[in-house]
Amino acid sequence: ATPMSIMVGVGRGAELGVLVKNAEALERLEKVDTLVVDKTGTLTEGRPSVVAVEAIGKIGEDGLLRLVAAVEQASEHPLAEAILREADRRSIDIPQASDFTSPTGKGVQATVEGREVVIGNALMLAERGIEVAELSDRADAFRDDGATAVLVAIDGAPAGVVAVADRVRPTTPEALASLRADGVTVVMLTGDNRRTAMAVARRLGIEMVEADVLPDQKKDVVEKLRDEGRIVAMAGDGVNDAPALAAADVGIAMGGGTDVAIESAGVTLLNSDLTSITRARTLSAKTMANIR
Ligand code: ADP
Ligand code: MG
């Protein structure tokens, strides 16, 4: 490989909004046949908002949201931001929480006004011996709309559901269409619930979905696909995505994503626009043709 052509390629990439960190990434892009893509913050904007609050019993919507917001104050997850914005919108006074814990990829828990508040996915509640059937039934309607259902329990009893929805990035459908036209298989990878993931995938025409994936398992999915002989690119934005980005043949970080993701990837999409992947692949093919 002549360094000159690579340098020209890297320069052209920058003009296209694609920051190429290493030459191998540029070389491999054209050969990629499978794109694994994180859902939240990559296919979607990653700035979700609360679309519904359902409270069980007499606590009421605002009463439930008050306790949930108290716990989420200590979390930096986008779901927490959405919940705090909604509490603010409703002018709810948020009490203090103590004994906060947050098992990654599952949820958050704390004590608020002497009550034990557990918030998160079904696993988060089930692991604490909380009955999730009733909450899951209520959650399914939201999940089928593509929203993330945050389950809430107070003192060990089911207390409600907060539905949070994130918009698909406007450039995502076009990006997927051109990748598909190029023969690239797209796999959605998410820590979110299978039902939510399937609803979003259906809307986007994505056929392969890996859902309910814990943060430390995202990398395993990439490795499994590589073991099948595929040339795998992984696109993601989060801290959770970093090991998977590093494990892929080409790691692609969203420019608006976390620093850890950007550091773990060979390529960064400066404008967080997935259509740049196709442009970068064309550039990769041209660069390699110049070298051969
Ligand atoms: P993603 O891959 O979609 O970015 P994460 O791995 O960060 O998801 O989280 C997986 C799931 O864990 C979320 O869909 C949510 O149900 C739950 N969860 C994680 N953090 C929180 C939080 N702060 N509040 C409520 N639920 C949470
Ligand atoms: Mg993400």
TrEMBL record:
Protein location: Cell membrane; Endomembrane system
The entry's keywords: ATP-binding, Cell membrane, Membrane, Metal-binding, Nucleotide-binding, Translocase, Transmembrane, Transmembrane helix
Entry's family note: Belongs to the cation transport ATPase (P-type) (TC 3.A.3) family. Type IB subfamily.
Protein name as it appears in the record: Copper-translocating P-type ATPase
Record organism: Blastomonas marina
Residue range from the parent sequence: 436 to 727 of 784
